[in-house]
Amino acid sequence: MPSKIDLFSPAALSPPTGYSHVAIVESGKQAHVSGQVAYDPMGKVVGEGDIAAQAEQVYANLAAALGAAGTDFTKVFKLVTYVVGLSTEKAVAVRKVRLKYLGDGPYPASTMVGVTALVDPRLLIEIEAIAALD
């Protein structure tokens, strides 16, 4: 039986920007994707110093991981994004790339967190995902 995902934002909460406040998965298996960073398939950093280029690589890596698990962005119900030195400008750049992959919604429950560093000092962003499997 396919997993039913209900993504919504209660009227009692502030209007979200490209995410839902709540995700309910009624049943089924899940794929938990480890935090993806801006490494290409050879392990080289893509877009050093460029948050938009790194976000693009991260989302491409997420797409590959989700595909290998037998799912895709339409089944993602939770994203956590870590951004080094988070600012309004960086958040806008990341959201622009995110919308390219998530389309017109509904959007998964999401959290964006500013951090001081990631595992490699050249990395600016890391994103982990949870998706339903049919």
Automatic annotation (TrEMBL):
SUPFAM superfamilies: YjgF-like. The keyword Hydrolase applies. It is an enzyme of class 3 (hydrolase). The keyword Phosphoprotein does not apply. CDD domains: YjgF_YER057c_UK114_family. It comes from the Bacteria. Its EC number is 3.5.-.-. Keywords: Hydrolase. InterPro entries: RutC-like_sf, YjgF/YER057c/UK114. It holds the Pfam family Ribonuc_L-PSP. GO terms for molecular function: hydrolase activity. Belongs to the RutC family. This is RidA family protein. The lineage of its organism: Bacteria, Pseudomonadati, Pseudomonadota, Alphaproteobacteria, Hyphomicrobiales.
